[in-house]
Amino acid sequence: MVIRTLAVVAAAATLATPAVASAQARTYAIASQPLDAALLQLAREADRGVAFTPEVVAGRRSAAVRGAVGFDAALAQMLQGTGLTYRIGEGGVATIMRRPGGPAPRPASPTPRPVAAKPAGADGEVGEVIVTVQKRAERAQSVPIAMTTVDGRTIENLRLDNLRDVSRLTPGLLVSTFSANSPVIAIRGASNTFQQIGVNKPVSIVVDEVFMPRNTVAVTELFDLASVQVLKGPQGTLFGRNVTGGVIVIDTGVPSLTQASGTAQFSYGNYNTIQLRSSASTPLGDKAAARFAVSFTDHDGYGRDRLTGQALDDLKSRNLRGQVRLVPTEDLELLASADYGDDHSAGRTLSSKTQGSDGDRRTAELGVRQRFDRTLWGASMRATWNAPIGLLTSVTAFRESQSGELYSGVGANFAFLTSGTQAVNDDADHLETFSQEIRYASPKFAFGDFVAGLYYLDEDADRRLRQFGLAARTGAVASNVRLTQAVSSTSLGLFVDGGINLPASFRLTLGGRYTRDKKEASLQRADLLNPAAGFSLSGLEKSWSEFTPRAVLSWTPTREMMAYASVARGFTSGGFNTEAATPAALATPFAPETVVNYEAGVKSQWWNDRARLNASVFHMTYDDKQELLFNGLTRVLTIINASEATSKGFEIEATIVPIAGVSLGANYGYLDTRYDDFIIPGGANNTGNRLGSSPKVKYSLLLDVRRPLADLGYALASASYTRTGGYFTGAARDPNLFVAAYDLLNASAGFETRDGRLRVMAWAKNLGDTDYVLIPSTQGVLGEYLGEPRTYGVSLTARF
Length: 800
Description:
By secondary structure, the chain is mainly beta. Helix content is 6%, strand content 55%. It starts with 25 loop residues before the first strand and ends with a strand.
């Protein structure tokens, strides 16, 4: 469901041509009228998406728009005197919002509204968000893909600080953490815990149309965003490799050419949490605009190592993002973006449940001074040309990241161990990625339309991993291995995806993508205690080719109802086991894993757009699934294509607005996963077990309130209750690797002035102070790593 929704979206049923550059001039003759009707008329005439909540436009009247002007200028004219402004998001969609300090709404004429506009008025409506997941601007309700969209307002109101917070409101999505640099992301059970460099994940993250090479971005902060969109099931046709489970799309928006705006927010909470966030957007003349956003977050540790006294699970985070938008001609638009992030902490609180435990789940007995440091940055250029033959788009990007983490893999210090060793890892990696996408979107003809494109990726990655073991009782160095890994990857993809309009409101969409991946790998393994056991191997090379098609039959009898059935194929790329203990294990690559998903769903709106109900049912089958296992025959830990599996279930998302200013939401996900064939060579038989990180049941309840307080302003409140069912973290049914079901309750309340300039909020997360496990451990001793405890505080926001 759209967790916090934007309302009636323009051009809902009439997006007849591709999105155009914002400055393209058209001749308008739009009379002054109720603002919601005027916005719908502008969107239809401009063939652009416009999104707004009913409460924002209610009671407001538009200014007239006349003459040959660009879309931005027309929208600015229309909003004159309304106290509103707008923000351009991904795909050129304009989101209408209050201008801080703006005047009260002018009374609107009681003239009846056009049939195309659903009544907003005092009774409110659920809303809609425009997305571009099919490489065109479309209503989320019109896209025949199971997806959950969270808009920027919800991210702010519910304090969704990272993707783990988002996952708790999203059926089918689970985000957890193994360590500070190793998040676990699973969609419908599709996941892996591989840490080797150059190895890929089955869930991808895409930020402003740029693929993120490492999922470490999942633990970075979310701030000043237009939306987060979670697409479920394989998306191989339009997104390519490494999306067997799905893709998470993050849209940061774009600066406005006509309106200046800004936000500053200060938050303080327990654990000495200090958070400063600010953003500003301003025009630079008639044909340029710039936007800048920063976020600084510090908090003390949630845990502590009682042996070293070091605070753990603390955070010091600095994030910056900037954009410059240029419109040199009516048909050409350029968007240059850059971002920088810098994060530091003392690592995770892995607490022992047995040897050395003091009974406190928030303390560790590691005796190792852990650390985590990460710096990442990137730059991109998106060019859009509205040519006579269609819309041409180019996205060029470069990204670089460096991270280092020193942590104990065993949950107790060597002094508490009776046998074995305390394993300590010092892990550092460096990645550089260049990507280029060029695509063409045809006009929307009467018979249909299509998108075609070319994608290229070049990635260089290296990793230096030191693994040493401290002997039980004494702490003597019992093992000391240094691995220097390097992998170079290139990927080339060609894709086409198009729809044919059929009689009786049916539409057939067919698409396909050909991808060719090539990887080159090397490893220097040095055993500092036994040099004879070391080896060096380089020049390893392997290529794979995959074709990933999709077919969708959709039926849209009315604007409020769509049903669809689809079949799609995806794959996760092959690779090399760059932590191999033997040359043979390194030299033997593993092949891609593939998945085919059969899905049917319905998207619907009811009660004059005051209620929404979306549902989907799916059946996914995996072939050659990649598994990390200890081979009992070769006595080597390695990645191989070891299993076949099935994932099936259903998801339901619902939203209702019983009265204006009150939104209720609920979602539910049921997931049934099974290994159909998984026998470890010389080891256990996991056939029949559930896939890791796949809770059978997951659901949440949501409340969002914004009600007027006479002439003083608005009372604000929000709450979310989430339930995550129990699950195993791996393929084995080991009770010591089982995460028990848990419930979380978050809430906030506050006040906003009538002009929207100031807002004060009190908030609390994990209100019940639930101890819930992120990752259990059986390495050396039984251990566990807990999620965040109860946090609370106050935020003050100023808008200008």
